[in-house]
Structure formats: structure tokens, C-alpha cells
């Protein structure tokens, strides 16, 4: 059994240390907001926060997550999730939505570290989150809007 | 008198011979030193090394040293920016499987204040850089350079995945030691 702390709740999970964190969060904890896209750190759909950093949970082994604070899209702090959600709705950002929880988790780290990002800062933070529907322009506008209310 | 002249001429000739011999010996050492650096240079220019010593602010990737996917950036401390920090994808060790991110406890580029660019440098430029403590941050460049290539975990990691550098780690370290011991001659 391995103990992990997800969204402030401790869970004992039955898995080996090399099991990817995403598998456990989705399959054992039933938190399905984080998505599986590529499984090799290429798309960002699985982004969660590990001690506040936007890790790719599809390749993060449980051994690394053990004893650390994990936050998924379901547990993102309201100080960040509310302004981001409002801006996302205002700009009608998602199309199919599959990449969006990863986009939001990456945007949250950007806004926490840089509350007034420029377009270049946004590119530097978000270039690793792929959106097959091509919502990039709306994501960028929404981040600027969210920044105004953070 | 004749004997004295003979002795003097003999001594001068002998001296001259010695000087010539010394000169030839030094020339040979210098040449060997240069050759040793050129051998190590092949490792410095290999993708496993140069990919993290790029001329720009994005790391390089793969055996063709293309710009790292997702256009990740160096950042101030060399560890990336915002949601694209190196350790967000690179784990504490290599992940098995093709095209999976390699990993180590520390994963970073040289920091922004000391970029230590290898990409595009000639052998002579690189050798000169290694002697410049502002380029490397070393205090005693000879000792520190050897220690760095011998023990730095990320240097050692270059021999742990993907296409390996053209020398073994031992040969690489030996070449650099030889370069320094034989006078750290600058390649032409
Ligand atoms: S599913 Fe993790 S980065 Fe694509
Ligand atoms: S909204 Fe469809 S993949 Fe991004």
C-alpha cells in the first residue's frame, strides 16, 4: 500500500511504485478530470500539480508522488480556479474539451508565478499543452482576462 | 689553448643539441596535448552533451539536435519556466521505452547567468572557454574541470541512455587529463 495525498485527502492505494500517478487518480480514486492523451509527456492532458508544479502525471511514478501534495483539476484552489473558469466561460474556450483540464492546470501555475503575463510568457508556459481543436487563441485571451481578476 | 677552444665548441654544440632536443620534446608534448583535446572535443560536440549546452535559450533534443519539443525554455535557473519546468516531465531516472523522457534527480540547462554554450564552438574556442572561470564558474579551472567531467551526475548520465558519446567515460576523462598534463595546448 502506498499513501498519497490528493486534493487534501489521504488515500492508501494498492499499486507498485512505478505505476503512473494518472492511472491511480483516474482508476482507483475515480477523479477523471485529468485526461490520458499520449502517455509520454508530450501533450499535457494529464497535468496535475505536485507540490504546486505542473507535472505530467502519465509518466510520474507513484514513488515520486508518495508523501507529496497532489492537486488535480477537481481540487484546484478557488483563488485560481474561479477566475480561470469565469474567463474560460467568457471566451467560450473549449471545443471538445479533452485538453482543457490540462490547459487550466498549466495556466494556474503561470498565473500563480506571474499574475500579469505577456503573450510571450503565456507561450512559454502553455506551449506544452496541445489542443487538437486549436483553441490556442481563446486560451491566450482567457488567461489575460483571468489575470485581471487575480 | 687549442684544447680550450675544442672543449668550448664541444660544450656549445652539446648545449645546442640539448636545446633542440628539449624543443622537439616540448613540440611533441604540445601536439599530443592538442590531439587529446580534439579527442575529447568529439564528446563535447556529441548530442548527449551539446543538447544541454545550446547557443539559444531552448535545449536541443535527439541525435539531430533539433529544438526541444514544446519549445521549452531555459529560465533564470536553467530549470525551465512556469508549467514547463524540466522536472515536470523528466523524472528522477530514465523511463524505459522509446522516446520516453530521460531523467535524473537534477535535470537542467546551465543557468541564464552562465550559459556555457558549446554549440557552434570550434575546438580552440571551447578550450579557451574552459580556461575562463567566467565561462565555467570554476575556481581552479584544471582541477575543477577534471572533477566536473569525472563526477558531475548529469555528465555521467550522458552515458546512460540513447546514442552514447563516441568515447567511453573513462577514455573521455583520460583525454582531458592528458590535455591538461601535457600543457593544455590550444588546438589550431
Ligand atoms: S497524457 Fe500525459 S502528457 Fe500526454
Ligand atoms: S478543446 Fe479539443 S483538444 Fe483542446
From TrEMBL, chain A:
Gene3D superfamilies: 3.10.20.30, [2Fe-2S]-binding domain. This is (2Fe-2S)-binding protein. Coiled coil: none annotated. The keyword Iron applies. Keywords: 2Fe-2S, Iron, Iron-sulfur, Metal-binding, Oxidoreductase. Residues 1-76 form the 2Fe-2S ferredoxin-type domain. InterPro entries: 2Fe-2S-bd, 2Fe-2S-bd_dom_sf, 2Fe-2S_ferredoxin-like_sf, 2Fe-2S_ferredoxin-type, 2Fe2S_fd_BS, Beta-grasp_dom_sf, Diverse_Oxidoreductases. The keyword Cell membrane does not apply. Pfam families: Fer2, Fer2_2.
Amino acid at each position: 500500500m502506498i499513501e498519497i495525498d490528493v486534493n487534501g485527502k489521504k488515500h492508501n492505494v494498492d499499486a507498485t511504485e512505478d505505476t503512473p500517478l494518472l492511472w491511480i487518480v483516474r482508476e482507483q480514486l475515480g477523479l477523471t478530470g485529468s485526461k490520458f492523451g499520449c502517455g509520454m509527456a508530450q501533450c499535457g492532458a494529464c497535468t496535475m500539480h505536485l507540490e504546486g508544479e505542473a507535472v505530467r502525471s502519465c509518466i510520474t511514478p507513484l514513488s515520486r508522488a508518495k508523501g507529496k501534495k497532489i492537486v488535480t483539476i477537481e481540487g484546484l484552489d478557488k483563488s485560481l480556479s474561479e477566475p480561470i473558469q469565469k474567463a474560460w466561460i467568457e471566451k467560450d474556450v473549449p471545443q471538445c474539451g479533452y485538453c482543457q483540464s490540462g490547459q487550466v492546470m498549466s495556466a494556474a501555475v503561470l498565473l500563480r508565478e506571474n499574475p500579469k503575463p505577456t503573450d510571450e510568457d503565456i507561450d512559454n508556459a502553455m506551449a506544452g499543452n496541445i489542443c487538437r481543436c486549436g483553441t490556442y487563441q481563446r486560451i491566450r485571451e482567457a488567461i489575460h482576462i483571468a489575470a485581471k481578476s487575480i | 689553448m687549442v684544447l680550450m677552444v675544442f672543449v668550448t665548441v664541444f660544450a656549445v654544440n652539446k648545449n645546442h643539441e640539448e636545446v633542440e632536443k628539449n624543443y622537439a620534446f616540448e613540440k611533441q608534448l604540445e601536439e599530443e596535448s592538442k590531439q587529446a583535446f580534439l579527442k575529447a572535443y568529439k564528446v563535447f560536440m556529441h548530442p548527449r552533451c551539446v543538447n544541454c549546452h545550446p547557443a539559444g535559450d531552448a535545449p536541443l533534443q535527439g541525435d539531430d539536435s533539433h529544438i526541444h519539443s514544446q519549445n521549452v525554455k531555459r529560465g533564470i535557473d536553467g530549470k525551465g519556466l512556469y508549467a514547463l519546468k524540466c522536472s515536470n516531465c523528466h523524472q528522477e531516472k530514465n523511463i524505459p521505452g522509446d522516446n520516453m523522457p530521460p531523467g535524473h534527480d537534477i535535470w537542467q540547462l546551465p543557468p541564464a547567468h552562465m550559459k556555457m554554450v558549446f554549440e557552434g564552438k570550434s575546438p580552440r574556442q571551447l578550450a579557451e572557454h574552459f580556461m575562463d572561470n567566467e565561462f565555467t564558474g570554476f575556481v581552479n579551472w584544471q582541477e575543477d574541470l577534471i572533477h566536473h567531467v569525472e563526477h558531475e551526475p548529469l555528465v555521467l548520465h550522458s552515458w546512460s541512455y540513447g546514442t552514447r558519446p563516441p568515447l567511453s567515460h573513462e577514455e573521455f576523462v583520460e583525454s582531458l587529463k592528458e590535455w591538461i598534463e601535457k600543457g593544455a595546448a590550444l588546438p589550431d
